[in-house]
Amino acid sequence: MAFSTRKRPLTPEQQAASAARRQRLREVSKQIAVLDDETRLALAQRMHLLTCDGHPLSIVNACMVALQHPSATIVGGLRQWRKHGRKVRLGEHGCSIWVPKKPLEGDTGLPEADSMPDERRFLLVTVFDVSQTDEE
């Protein structure tokens, strides 16, 4: 039996905010899609973005952060920042990036009959710049 993670339905305000966020991400994706490869690479290199764990972002994720938060330098999720002794300030709005979805526990990793063998799944997650955090 599967349980839903959402316990109550979204309010109209939450639905409107969610729709606005999806529309903004569509616009960002369209902006990245029209860039040629050289421009994407130049934008990603100009930003010098790293995660708070010290890993570089992919070119697409660096472009997504650059278009959403042009002054970002080091980004991380809520749990990553907490692990590093920092907390995101209340009211801060993060940037969305794509991260690969980990297989579920018990998943054999074998493709299902109706999926492509090389199919990867990604999730949109929110990351915050170091300037949006404080020491705990």
Describe this structure in words.
With 136 residues, this protein is of the alpha+beta class. The strands form two sheets. A four-stranded mixed sheet has the order 1-2-5-4. Strands 3-6 form a two-stranded antiparallel sheet. It is 37% helix and 18% strand. The protein has one domain (18-105, 117-135). The chain has helices spanning 12-34, 37-47, 59-68, 78-83, and strands at 50-51, 74-76, 86-88, 95-100, 122-129, 133-135. The model has no long low-confidence stretch (mean pLDDT 86).
Summarize the structure.
This protein has 136 residues and is of the alpha+beta class. It contains four helices and six strands, in the order ααβαβαββββ.
Query: How much helix, percentage-wise, in residues?
Result: 25-40%
Number of domains: 1
- State the shape: globular
Largest sheet: 4 strands, mixed
Strand order within the widest beta sheet: 1-2-5-4
How many strands appear in the DSSP assignment? 6
Output the structural class. alpha+beta
- Poorly predicted residue ranges: none
Alpha plus pi helix count: 4
Provide the gyration radius in Å.
Answer: 17 Å
Strand content: 15-25%
Key traits:
136 residues, alpha+beta, two-stranded antiparallel sheet
Give the topology.
Elements: H1 12-34, H2 37-47, E1 50-51, H3 59-68, E2 74-76, H4 78-83, E3 86-88, E4 95-100, E5 122-129, E6 133-135
Parallel strand pairs: 1-2
Antiparallel strand pairs: 2-5, 3-6, 4-5
